[in-house]
Amino acid sequence: MRMFSGLGGKLLLAFSLMALLTLSASLLGWVGLTQLRQLEQGVQATLASQESARTLARLSGEIQSSSRLLAMASSEVEREHQGRLLTLQGQQMQGVLEQLGTEGELEKLHQLSQTIIGNLGQQGWLVGERLTLMAEGSALRTELVDAAGRVAELARSQMENAETVMVAGMGDLYRLQGKQADAALDRLLEQDLDWLEQMTELRHRTLMQQQRIEEIWRSDQPSALQQLQQDVRRELAILRLRAGAVTDPGRRASVEQALTLLEQSDKLVQLRSDWLGKGEALRVLATANDAMMASLNQQVGALVTDARHALGQSQGALREKLQLVEQALVLIGLLTLGLLILLMWRIVYGRIVWPLQHAVAGMSRLARGDLTPPQPNLAQGQDELAKLGRALQVFRDNAIELGRYQRELESRVEERTGQLSHANERLNEEVEKQRQARAEAEQANRAKSVFLATMSHEIRTPMNGILGGLTLLEDTHLNGEQQRYLAAIGHSGESLLEILNDILDYSKIEAGHVEARREPFPLHQLADELCALFRPRAEAKGLRLELTYTASLPPVVEGDMGKLRQVLANLLGNAVKFTREGGITLCVMPLACAGPCAEPCIEFVVQDTGPGIPAEEQQAVFEAFRQRKRDMGHQGGTGLGLAISQKLVSAMGGELQLQSQPGEGCRFSFSLPLQRSAALLPAEPQAFQLCQPREILLVEDNEINRLVAQGMLARLGHRVTLAEDGRTALAWVTERAFDLALLDINLPDMDGISLREDLAAISEEVHGRVLPAIAVSAQMYPEDIRHCLAAGFADFVGKPVRLAALASAIARQFKEENALPAAADLQLRLPQPPASNAVLEADLPMLGAARIGQLIDLFESQGRELVAALAASEPGEARRQLAHKLKGSALALGLSEFAKRCTELENGEGSPTALMPAFEGAVTDLRAWLGRKMAMTT
User: Fold this and answer.
1) What angle is formed at CA 256 by the lines to CA 254 and CA 262, rounded to 5 degrees?
2) In 10 A of CB 810, how many CB atoms?
3) How many helical (H) and strand (E) elements, i.e. helices and strands, does the chain have?
C-alpha cells in the first residue's frame, strides 16, 4: 500500500473508482440502447413506406398540374418543356411504385400509372398538332393582313394623287373663263371626283377585309367561322371590281396580286376549324386523366392510412422500451452519484484539498509579510504536502532575513531618487525648448509655402498678360523694327519666367513635390535639340559646342524627359555663361555596369574649358542661392540652377558629380538607368487642329488676362462671353447655354471649384445639357492640378496661358467630333441634287410634266408660308401641326430628306430657323429634276 501513501497515489485511487462506476453505467446503457435500436429500425421502415406514399400523392398532384399547363402551352418550346417535365415526373412515380413493391393493391396502382402516362403522351401529341395549326394559321393571317394593308396603302396613295390633281385643277379654274372653265369644272366633277370616291371605297373595304381576317382567327365558334367566310368571299368580289379603277398599270398589278393572296381566306378558316377540333379532343382527354388521377389519389390515401396505423403501433412499443431504459439509467445514476460523493469527501477533500488549503493560506500570509508559524503544523508526514510545509518554513526564515536587507536598501534608494529628480527637471526644460524651436521652424516653413504660392499666382498673372499679349501681337502687321522690339520683349519675359520657375521649382523640390515620371522619348533628338538651342549663344561668344553621342545607344528610352532636359539645359547654360574661350562638349554614352541590368546605364557629361572651381568651393556651388563668380563679365542669376539639378538627378535615380581644377574647366557628370523602349514616337510634332466654333464662357477677374484669353479664343474661332466674377458667370449661364467654361480658380467673390459645381447644376437644370469646365490657374503644383481634376474639372491650363496648350485642352473636350482643317483650307461644300425622285418618276406618266410643274409651284408658295410660320412659332402643338402638314407635302413630292427634318421638328427636336435653307435646297432639287426630264423629252 506504499504506492497509495503519496498525493499521486490517493488521486489515482479516487479516479480509478470513478472510472469503474462510469464503465458499469455505460454497459447497462448499451444493453438498453441495443433493444431500442431494433425497435427504431422497424419505425424507420414504417416511416419510409409512409413517406413513399406521400411522395406518390405529391407526384400525382404535380402530374395533374403539369398536364393542365401542357394543354395551355402557347409555343413549341413551352410544350417541349412541359413534356420533359411530365416525363420526369412519370419516371419518378414509377420509381416510387417500384420501391413500394407489386403485391396486392400495388399491382393496380402500377397498371393505373401506365394508363395515365399513355394518356399524357397522347395529350402531348395533340398539343403539338394544335401548335402547328396555330403557327400555320398565324403566318397565313399575317400574309393576308399584309396583303390587305398593301391594297389599302396603294388606295391611300391614289387618294392623295386624286386630291392633288383636284387641288391643281381648282387652281386652274381661277385663270379660265367661259366654256373652258365649264369644261374644266365638268372634268373635275366627272373624272377626278369619281376617281377619288372609288379609291376611298377601295381603301375602306380593304380595311374592313383586314378586320374580318382578324375576326376569323379569333373566332371560337364553327358557325361564326362559316358566316365570316361567306362575308370575305362577297367582299373579295367587290374589291376586284373597285381595283379596276386604279389607272397605273404597275399599281393595278400589285392590287391584283394582293387580292389573289386574299383568296386564301378559306384555308385560314379550315386551319381555325381544325385547331378548334384538336382543342375539343384535348378537353375530353383531360377529363379522362382527371378521373384516373382521382382514383390514383384514393388508392394512395388508403396506403397512407395503413402506414400511419403501423407507425402508431411501432411508436407505442418504442415508448415502453424507452420508459424501462430511463428508469434503469436513473437508478444507476443515483447509485453512481452517491459513490462519487463518498469518494470525493473521504479521499479528495479530506486527504488532498483540506491540507492544500492550509498550505495556500500559509503562503498568502508570507506574501503579506506575516511571518508567524502556520497552524496546524503541515510539516508532519511523508507526502508531498508535508514536504511543502517544510519548504514554507525555510521560506519564512529567509523572508525574515530579506526584510532586514530591504529596509537598508530603501534608505539608499531614497537618497538616489532625489538626485534623479533634479536631473529630470533640467531634461524637461531642454525638451520644452526643443519643442518650441520645432514649432517655430514648422510655422516658418508653412509661411514660406504660403508666400511662394502667393508669389506664383501674383507673378504669373501679369506674366500671363505679357506673354499672351505678345502672342496675339505677333499676328498683327508689324514692320521689321517692331518685330525686333517684340522679340526682345518676348525674350525678356521668358527670362523673367525662367527665374520665377527656378525659384518655384526649388520650393517644390524642397517641399517634396518632385516626382520622376517614366515615359518613352527620343534620346538622340533631345540631345540634338539642346545643342541646337545653345549653339547660337556659344558661337556668339566664339565658343565651340559639340555633341558626342554613342551610336549603340537605343533610339527611344523610358524616363522623365522634362527633368532630364531641365538638368542638361542648366548645365549647358552655365557652361556657356562661364566659359570665355575654347569649347563645350556634351557627351552621351553607355556606362559599364557590373550589376544584373537589362540595359547599361547612360552617362551624361557636360565639359567646358572655363576657369574651373577649387576643390574647397565645389560643394558650395550645389547650395541654394549660392553663386561663385567664375567670370567677371557675368551678372544675374538666382543661384538655384545647380541645387535644382542635383535634386532632379537624385529624383531620377542618379547623382550629379563635379570634377574641376582651377584653370582646367569643369566636368559635370551623372548617370541614369534609362531602359530601352519599344514605343513608336511620331517623326514630327503634330500641330494642333482647330475644332468647331464653340460658345465659351470665360470667367477671369484680371482685365488684362481677360483681354489676352479673349484674343486667343477669337483667334481659335470661338465665340466668347466674358465674366469678371462668379456672380456674373452664374447670371450668364442662367440666361443662355454654353458649350464650355474657362474658370480662373481664384476669383474675388468665390473659388473656381464651387463656381464649377453651381454652373454645371444650373446648365443641366435650365438647359438640359452638361457644361464641361477647364481650370485656369497660376498655381501649378502637381497636387493642385490633381485637386482640380478630382473636383470635376475636365482639364487644367496653367498660366501664362499658351495658345497651343489652350487649343489642345479645348479640342480634348470635343474629341469625338471631327476637327476642322486650317482656316486657309476651309471650303464650303454644297449638297448635290438627287439624281432621281422615285415618287415623281411614278407619277410623271399619269400626270405629265406640266401638271407636276404646277405641283412644284404650289409646294413652293405654300411651303414658304409654312416655313415662315414655323420659324415664328413657339414649341407646342401648333408647331407640331405645321411641321406635320409640311412633312406630308414633302413626302407627296418624294422629298424624303426634307421630310426627315420636318419629322424632327414634329418630335420637338431641332431648330425651325435652320429649315429655310433646307427648303430652298429642296425646291432647287425639284426644279432641277423637272428641267432634266423636260430636256430628255425634247
Assistant:
1) 105
2) 25
3) 23, 13
pLDDT at 453: 56
What nine digits make up the cell of 713? 479664343
Encode pLDDT of 467-484 as tens digits.
666 766 766 667 766 765
Q: Which of 536, 119, 107, 106 lies closest to 292, judged by CA?
A: 119
Residue 582, pLDDT score: 92
Q: How many CB atoms lie within 10 A of CB 899?
A: 21
Distance CA 897, CA 878 (A): 22
> Which pLDDT score is estimated for 630?
45
> Which stretch of DSSP H or E encloses residue 606?
strand 601-608
Q: H helices of 72-104, where?
A: 76-100
Listed residue (281, 274, 264) closest to 222, CA to CA: 274
C-alpha cell at 610: 572655363
Render pLDDT for 274-290 as a digit per residue (tens, 0 to 9): 777 777 777 777 777 77
Tell me the DSSP string of 101-165: -SSTHHHHHHHHHHHHHHHHHHHHHHHHHHHHHHHHHHHHHHHHHHHHHHHHHHHHHHHHHHHHH
Cell of 580: 570665355
Side by side, the strands of the sheet bearing 695-699 are: 719-723, 695-699, 740-744, 773-777, 795-798
User: Interior CA angle at 707 toward 705 and 711, to 5°?
Assistant: 115
Cell numbers standing for residue 85: 417535365
- By residue count, the chain amounts to 938
Chain-wide mean pLDDT for the chain?
Answer: 76
Long-range contacts of 536-543 (CB under 8 A, 24+ apart): 537/576, 538/576, 538/583, 538/584, 541/576, 541/579, 541/580, 542/581, 543/576, 543/579, 543/581, 543/582, 543/583, 543/584
Nearest-angstrom CA–CA distance, 273 and 287: 22
Kindly calculate the radius of gyration of the chain based on its CA atoms and give it in whole angstroms.
53
**Sorting pLDDT into bands at 50, 70 and 90, what band is 492?**
low
Ordered alpha helix ranges (H), 174-264: 178-187, 193-218, 222-243, 249-262
**Distances in whole angstroms, Cα of residue 874 to Cα of each of 174, 835, 837, 877, 882:** 35, 36, 33, 9, 11
Averaged pLDDT for residues 855-879: 85
Burial class, 895, CB count within 10 angstroms (exposed 0-12 / middle 13-18 / buried 19+): buried
Angle at CA of residue 47, ends 41 and 51, nearest 5°:
145
Asked whether the predicted pLDDT for residue 822 surpasses 50, the reply is no
* CA-to-CA separations, 491 to 219, 494, 538, 766, in angstroms, rounded: 94, 5, 17, 47
Residue of 738 and 443 predicted with greater confidence: 738
Whole-number Cα distances in Å, 238 to 50, 344, 847: 73, 118, 28
Amino acid at 149: G
pLDDT digits (tens, 9 = 90+) for 230-268: 777 787 777 777 776 676 777 777 777 777 777 777 777
**Which residue spans within 550-582 are E strands per DSSP?**
556-559
Confidence at 402, pLDDT banded by 50, 70, 90: confident
Q: Considering only 527-531, 640-644, 833-837, which range has the smallest mean pLDDT?
A: 833-837
Nearest to 144 by CA among 52, 220, 234, 206: 206
Nearest to residue 709, comparing CAs of 811, 819, 800, 822? Answer: 800
Percentage of the chain beyond pLDDT 70 is: 72
CB 34 within 8 A of CB 348: no
Please name every residue paired with 548 in a beta bridge, in sequence order, or none if there are none.
Answer: 587
Nearest to 913 by CA among 875, 885, 881, 878: 875
Contacts with 889 (C-beta within 8 Å, 6 or more apart), sequence order: 859, 862, 863, 866
Separation between Cα atoms, residue 508 and residue 514, nearest integer Å = 6
